Amino acid sequence: MTRPPRGRAAPWVGSVALHLVFVALLAAAALRWRTDPPPEQLAVEGNVVRYEDLPDSVKAGKPLREKPVPQVQPAPEPVPVEPEPEPEPLPPQPQPEPVDTAAQQQAAAEAQRLEQQRAALEQRKAEEQRAADLKRTQEAEAQQRKAAEEQQRAAQAAEERRQAEQRKEQEALAAKQKQLEQEKAAREAKQRAEREADLQRALASEEEGEAFARSGVVDEYKALLTQTIERNWNRPPSARAGLKCTLYVTQATGGTVLDVKIGDCNGDQAVRDSVANAVFKSSPLPAPRDPRAFQRQLVMNFEPKE
């Protein structure tokens, strides 16, 4: 039979041998417990006496009288028990090889070195983790600062844009206000020029009218109108002598009467209505001999003859 290598079989053989020795010891102890008689039990009586309670003779060194020791009865003879056959002796087991102390020390040193490496690795990992956490914290803080700065810059840019737009609006408003003022000044200047021109024309027309009036053409035209209205007037019974009414007549080109208003009049309402009807009845009014004497707004005094 081929034996296993010595280095591999020694632990297994030693373990079997130890188990067999342990079983044999248990069997021998059980056999002795069954065959040996129980030990005798001796009773010992005594009292504890303090030194102060001892008699003076004992303190002086005299021995006390010994008390008789009671006789102990011998124990009965044990009944002989037939001994059990002893177990067969175990075959000699190979002794375990001596432990190599140097190898143990080297293994312990190697284990210690590995433990130190593991501790150093864990410490390095912890430091790397702390460094990574610190880096992430710093990056987060940097991002927050960057976001805050960007937000501040955006707010500042928005404020600058708002101020620029406000300045542009103010400039545009000022320019528009200036333009309005210029336009107003131009209108006022134009109006002044037109008023001056109208005044000049009015003065010229007035001078011309006065000259024309002095020629007698206008008086002749108003007399012709008054005669025409008197011919078309139906005198009411309430009309009295000395009737005098102021007439405001509006006529179109060609003499068509558009409106008649009676001003001051010393007649009653029937007289006023009859005069207004006479004016409308005279439409179209006769044209003047000189077209320059034509007037759209006529103011005449109606004084009929008796």
Question: What's the layout of helices and strands?
Answer:
Elements: H1 6-35, H2 56-59, H3 101-214, H4 217-231, E1 245-251, E2 257-265, H5 269-281, E3 297-302
Antiparallel strand pairs: 1-2, 1-3
CATH architecture of the domain at 216-302: 2-Layer Sandwich
Strand content: 5-15%
Structural class determined from secondary elements: mainly alpha
Parts with pLDDT < 50 across at least 5 consecutive residues: none
Shape: rod-shaped
Number of strands: 3
**Order of strands side by side in the largest beta sheet?**
2-1-3
Largest sheet: 3 strands, antiparallel
What share of the residues lie within helices?
Answer: 55-70%
Keywords summarizing the entry:
306 residues, mainly alpha, Fusion Protein Consisting Of Minor Coat Protein, Glycine Rich Linker, Tola, And A His Tag, Chain: A, Domain 2, 3-stranded antiparallel β-sheet, rod-shaped
Task: Write a structural description.
It is a single chain. This protein is 58% helix and 7% strand. The chain is mostly helical. It has a domain at 216-302: Fusion Protein Consisting Of Minor Coat Protein, Glycine Rich Linker, Tola, And A His Tag, Chain: A, Domain 2. The protein starts with 5 loop residues before the first helix and ends with a strand. The mean pLDDT is 78.
